[in-house]
Specification:
With 465 residues, the protein is α+β, with helices and mostly antiparallel strands. It folds into three domains: 252 residues, BirA Bifunctional Protein, domain 2; 61 residues, Herpes Virus-1, CATH 3.30.40; 116 residues, Rossmann fold. 34% of the residues lie in helices and 26% in strands. A seven-stranded mixed beta sheet has the order 3-9-10-16-13-12-11, with helices on both faces. The chain has a five-stranded mixed beta sheet with strand order 20-19-21-22-23, with helices on both faces. Helix 2 crosses helix 11. The protein binds adenosine-5'-triphosphate.
Length: 465
């Protein structure tokens, strides 16, 4: 990462903490590594992004239904899925400073083509051929070995091997094991999808990039069940649709790209990532996989249950293929924040009292912005203005998260809202007393429209939707 990008990323992280979006977990005890909490604004942003996903994936479709499976599942699920045996990352230890690293990350950071699906021997050769040493202290590295990423705990009063359960490392398995339940109880026919949002846990080793890679995170996954002959076409459609979702919510096109996996995971027939160009480089935000019939076949084998689909029209019985779209909510939040972040040296208007200061603006899409509108009485002394402003704010709260702010100069108040991405600031001034109008300032253009108080809601509705 260049010096400039490192600095920019540090400023983004600091803005997130300063403004109450994201805090380190258990902060007062020194924090828990790679675990984060969402503050008052963070939780609003998180819920908005999740709602947008749910709306696009479930609400607007008649072929996808929702599910909320438990985090803890029968341990056989993870045997069948392959996670117990092969959900691992290749690691090396530094013999000098004892720090542990992901081999594939060390290699790719050096510009060497490598990934976590490579054989340990292959990775070892790459380390030798390229004289790779510890990136922290230059010490010699151990041979690579596999490290399982699942977090374990015990269910019940006895801490024995029979009572081991795993905190799920992905939400997808909850969908596969409920495939028949949904099919038998809900009027769905193939092709159809099941979507769910929920927590997942991975004991990640490389965790330096804030909420990009955490040990507890939220996934939004959709598994689409299709006839094998349709799988390739449906996969292409989902790739197109998922990319559109980001673009429609304002992610810059030049910072998004598809990347096909060179090496496939054990379950995949084809795999693409949607990558975003973060300040620390191009990284995966969402994974799209054609999983073939791997998952249902495995669960048929391990559970001895018939999970085949019987086509009511043709009478054909088959194991459906699964097209998966899997996106991390936390990583998506970081994507939206990085995409929205602007830093204006010397201030945006150059005429305010702050013209020497740096100003920060989050150009979040109005639909995902945490606060939709702020109501600002021009002066604090005039009780009548405050009354009107408070009334407007309380009326707007029926429909939108709204802030009321009467402290400090109007310029400072605009900047406060710009920093947290509020798209509209409504100012109540002396004209408001005469003609029941207000001004509405657009965060991005800083243009102001004068409209009637009674028209505010329609105005916002129009702009936000
Ligand atoms: P990576 O290669 O970055 O570890 P992955 O390929 O293991 O990711 P998947 O298993 O495909 O990721 O998970 C799907 C999505 O879940 C990812 O695209 C990402 O958005 C999210 N995700 C995975 N692991 C994490 C994590 N540790 N923290 C936050 N989000 C994650």
């Amino acid at each position: 990462m260049s010096e400039e990008n490192t600095q920019q990323f540090e400023k983004i992280m600091s803005l997130m903490k300063r403004k109450g979006f994201i805090f380190q977990s258990s902060d007062i005890y020194g924090g828990l590594s790679a675990i984060y909490d969402y503050g008052p604004l963070g939780v609003l942003l998180k819920n908005n992004i999740q709602n947008e996903w749910w709306k696009a994936m479930v609400q607007k479709r008649d072929d996808i239904v929702g599910l909320d499976a438990a985090i803890l599942m029968h341990p056989m699920v993870w045997k069948a899925s392959g996670h117990v045996d092969s959900f691992s990352d290749p690691l090396v230890d530094c013999k000098k400073c004892n720090l542990r690293h992901r081999v594939d990350h060390i290699l790719t950071n050096k510009g060497i083509d490598a990934d976590d699906k490579m054989q340990l021997e292959e990775l070892e050769s790459l380390i030798k051929e390229n004289n790779i040493v510890c990136p922290e202290c230059g010490g010699e590295l151990t041979k690579p070995r596999s490290f399982n990423l699942m977090l374990k705990t015990y269910l019940g009063p006895v801490e024995s091997d029979e009572n081991i359960v795993y905190l799920r490392p992905e939400t997808a398995q909850g969908i596969y094991v409920n495939f028949k339940n949904v099919l038998n109880t809900y009027r769905v026919k193939i092709p159809f999808g099941i979507a769910q949002v929920g927590k997942a846990f991975r004991n990640e080793i490389t965790t330096k990039q804030f909420i990009f890679r955490t040990r507890e995170f939220t996934q939004m996954e959709m598994q689409y069940f299709v006839h094998p002959s349709q799988a390739d076409d449906v996969y292409e459609e989902w790739k197109e649709r998922r990319l559109r979702w980001f673009l429609d919510l304002g992610i810059r096109e030049d910072r998004l790209r598809f990347k096909q996996h060179a090496k496939l995971a054990h379950y995949a027939k084809d795999a693409y990532d949607i990558e975003y160009e973060f300040p620390f480089g191009w990284k995966e935000v969402e994974g799209l996989h054609n999983r073939g019939d791997f998952d249902l076949s495995q669960h048929i084998k391990y559970s001895n249950k018939d999970l085949q689909y019987l086509d009511p029209e043709t009478g054909e019985k088959y194991i459906p293929y699964i097209i998966e779209t899997s996106i991390g909510l936390d990583r998506t939040i970081l994507t939206f924040i990085c995409n929205a972040y602007e830093e204006v040296e010397g201030g945006r208007t150059q005429t305010t009292e702050s013209s020497k200061e740096v100003e920060y603006v989050l150009h979040l899409h109005p639909r995902i912005a945490p606060v939709k509108a702020a109501v600002l009485p021009l002066v604090k002394k005039e009780e009548k203005l405050l009354g009107i402003a408070r009334d407007i704010a309380s009326n707007l709260r029926e429909d939108y998260i709204t802030m009321y702010d009467d402290s400090g100069s109007i310029g400072r108040r605009y900047r406060r809202q710009d920093e947290i991405g509020t798209p509209f600031c409504i100012t109540v001034d002396f004209d408001s007393l005469k003609d029941n109008t207000v001004t509405i300032r657009d965060r991005d253009t800083m243009k102001q429209d004068r409209i009637k108080i009674t028209e505010i809601k329609d105005y916002l509705k129009d702009k936000i939707s």
